[in-house]
Recover the amino acids of this structure.
């Protein structure tokens, strides 16, 4: 057993916009705690968190990573996440690993897109939150306005618990102390603000405070934890990890003031399936039955697969056989590890509340629940809101004969990232990868290249779909008489549009054996083939109900293949009369730009068939433009934004829904479509 227990553990997940200094801060904390002999740096590729080759090359995080240290008798796990909008999937999967989400705001840039996003997500999952203002010693910073911006964006409950002082070379405590001066004014004032916020949570404490009596530190601590858990207080503190200012103080804050797994918010777990799903209450008790969940998977060709998990209840030991999700078969673990970046040290046990890893277990995936009781087969984390990967590229091997290796390596990379998907285009049979943006796919392809596999890519393909807009009837009689045995099958059917997103429904409404039952699967096979092939532009047809109404068979010549063909072409006949239409993916966009670029941005979006839905002023002279636009028009938005704003601004987009394309676009798609392999 480890030397510490659940109450000693603190888990923090670092989240926030790219470049705000999460990794630098994690490296500084590691060094300050004495866990490592030198301070790692993202700038020279020595960071303990950004240890993957691709991360060193780019100088920023691409994967989440876990490091640990002990300080003041506590055991701290830091989960560092990437802050690029393209890598949001990695960051989101780590949210349920920590009690506290620590978001970073750079004093230079103020509150940025992903910081806002992660703050909101953490709040929606009822996690404790803390904000660290980083880079307070960087040139041209205005700490006061950054603090105002934080409060304007996230609310008045964001209150400093320490303050920059002495010209940025130190920070002073304003939670326990009320003495002295800070760069933002008298410490006393800030002390009063934060204490008043805390005591508001507890009537008795409030009374003692109002009567001017001394507060019991233990009572203040308990109430502080409650304030954090309920989002009544979001502490703000200040650091400059480059110069080490505020780092030692941050270690004390994390270990003294943030909740342990015993005190902190519970992760939302659900037990059951479908309608019967219920919240599942666990206890951070190491002696109870095991409940852990996998939040990160790394597939290294040399080390093998590493699955990183957070234990919510019970204990994981190396000699255990665990169950993952609803798999019937147990998994023998052999060994469990504690992680410090790329180093893993074998551990006796990973207790409740702690983070650990297992190596070389193939059957584990992000989101899996580890348990040892079949009663928990249907236990899962409340679904995380991953954005849908809509940005696609068709890839083909540069070297012949690499196809197999490329698809299997891509499939492994897919396991590392819930927003990276690999599939085949049914129309072109090409291998297609999908991610959140240009950058996301570029990283993935670099990773592929670093494993010795190179591909050619083709411009993004848009995942169009087709549907129908009216009911219609269809009919086809397939009859072939070549020499001996013939083929005969005849199908009557009708089609009706379904609501968007309903998919496909097949109904057999045949009476009296007009089509013998054994041929119905063949009819449906033909129907499905047609749905996959598409009609207008060769895209999959969706949101359609197909009802087989009548047919005819022949005692000798009726064959499966005949009914398959009849089903397919009867459907085609019906679709041709059902006002078929091409659907295109529409994305929600959020673009943050300096105020003076707003006109250019909204104008540009309108010219791309976009609909601007609103603009909000953000503190700090920024504006956020919310819009919907067809994905086809904004696939290169990264470079467009750059050219409109000269490099400033950031954006994110995510899939919203499908909509019919305008008639002229449909005409272009239809004209470009050459059905291949038509039989008849
Ligand atoms: N002056 C100063 N620079 C800093 C500080 N923290 C980080 N930086 C610099 O800011 C840049 C980005 O730092 P990172 O730690 O990689 O930022 P990150 O938030 O991890 O970024 P992503 O991994 O891309 O999400 C690096 O060049 C750091 O050297 C700081 O406290 N002061
Ligand atoms: Mg980083």
């Amino acid at each position: 057993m480890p030397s510490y227990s659940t109450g000693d553990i603190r888990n923090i997940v670092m989240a926030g916009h790219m470049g705000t200094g999460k990794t630098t801060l994690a490296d500084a904390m590691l060094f300050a705690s004495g866990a490592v002999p030198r301070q790692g740096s993202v700038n020279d590729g020595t960071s303990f968190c950004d240890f993957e080759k691709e991360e060193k090359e780019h100088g920023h995080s691409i994967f989440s990573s876990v490091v640990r240290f002990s300080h003041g008798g506590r055991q701290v796990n830091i989960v560092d996440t990437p802050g690029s909008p393209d890598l949001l999937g990695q960051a989101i999967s780590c949210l349920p690993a920590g009690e506290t989400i620590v978001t970073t705001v750079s004093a230079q840039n103020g509150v940025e897109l992903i910081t806002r996003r992660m703050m909101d997500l953490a709040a929606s999952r009822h996690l404790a939150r803390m904000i660290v203002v980083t880079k307070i010693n960087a040139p041209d910073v205005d700490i006061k306005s950054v603090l105002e911006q934080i409060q304007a964006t996230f609310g008045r409950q964001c209150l400093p618990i320490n303050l920059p002082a002495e010209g940025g070379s130190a920070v002073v405590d304003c939670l326990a102390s009320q003495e002295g001066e800070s760069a933002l004014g008298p410490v006393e004032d800030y002390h009063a603000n934060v204490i008043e916020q805390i005591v508001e949570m507890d009537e008795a404490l409030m009374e003692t405070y109002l009567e001017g009596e001394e507060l019991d530190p233990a009572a203040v601590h308990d109430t502080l934890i409650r304030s954090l858990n309920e989002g009544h207080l979001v502490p703000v503190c200040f650091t400059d990890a480059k110069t080490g200012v505020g780092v030692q103080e941050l270690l004390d804050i994390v270990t003294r003031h943030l909740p342990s797994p015993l005190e902190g918010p519970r992760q939302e777990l659900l037990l059951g399936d479908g309608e019967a799903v219920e919240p599942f209450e666990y206890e951070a008790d190491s002696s109870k039955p095991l409940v852990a969940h996998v939040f990160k998977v790394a597939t290294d060709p040399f080390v093998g697969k590493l699955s990183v998990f957070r234990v919510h209840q019970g204990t994981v030991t190396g000699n255990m056989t665990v169950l993952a999700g609803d798999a019937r078969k147990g998994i023998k673990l052999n060994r469990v590890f504690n992680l410090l970046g790329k180093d893993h040290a074998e551990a006796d046990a990973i207790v409740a509340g702690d983070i650990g890893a297992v190596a070389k277990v193939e059957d584990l995936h992000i989101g899996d629940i580890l348990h040892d009781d079949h009663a928990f087969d249907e236990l899962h984390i409340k679904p995380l809101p991953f954005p849908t990967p809509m940005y696609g590229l068709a890839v083909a091997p540069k070297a012949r004969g690499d196809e197999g290796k490329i698809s299997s390596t891509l499939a492994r990379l897919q396991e590392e990232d819930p927003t990276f998907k690999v599939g085949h285009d049914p129309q072109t049979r090409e291998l297609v990868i999908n991610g959140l943006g240009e950058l996301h796919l570029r990283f993935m392809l670099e990773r592929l290249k670093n494993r010795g596999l190179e591909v050619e890519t083709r411009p993004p393909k848009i995942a169009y779909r087709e549907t129908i807009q009216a009911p219609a009837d269809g009919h086809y009689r397939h009859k072939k008489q070549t020499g001996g045995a013939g083929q005969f099958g005849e199908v009557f059917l009708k089609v009706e549009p379904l609501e968007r997103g309903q998919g496909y429904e097949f109904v057999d409404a045949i009476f009296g054996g007009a089509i013998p039952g054994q041929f119905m699967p063949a009819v449906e096979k033909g129907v499905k083939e047609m749905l996959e092939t598409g009609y207008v532009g060769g895209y999959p047809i969706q949101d359609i109900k197909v009802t087989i109404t009548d047919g005819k068979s022949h005692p000798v010549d009726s064959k499966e293949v005949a009914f398959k063909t009849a089903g397919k072409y009867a459907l085609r006949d019906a679709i041709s009369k059902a006002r078929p239409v091409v659907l295109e993916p529409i994305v929600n966009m959020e673009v943050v730009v300096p105020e003076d670029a707003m006109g250019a941005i909204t104008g540009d979006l309108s010219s791309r068939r976009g609909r601007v839905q609103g603009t909000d002023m953000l503190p700090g002279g920024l504006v956020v433009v919310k819009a919907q636009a067809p994905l086809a028009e904004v696939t290169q938005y990264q470079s467009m934004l750059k050219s409109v704003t000269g490099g400033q601004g950031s954006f994110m987009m995510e899939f919203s829904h499908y909509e019919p394309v305008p008639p002229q676009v449909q005409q272009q798609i239809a004209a470009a479509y050459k059905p291949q392999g038509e039989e008849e």
Summary: The radius of gyration is 29 Å. The CA atoms of residues 18 and 84 lie 5 Å apart. The longest strand covers residues 581-594.
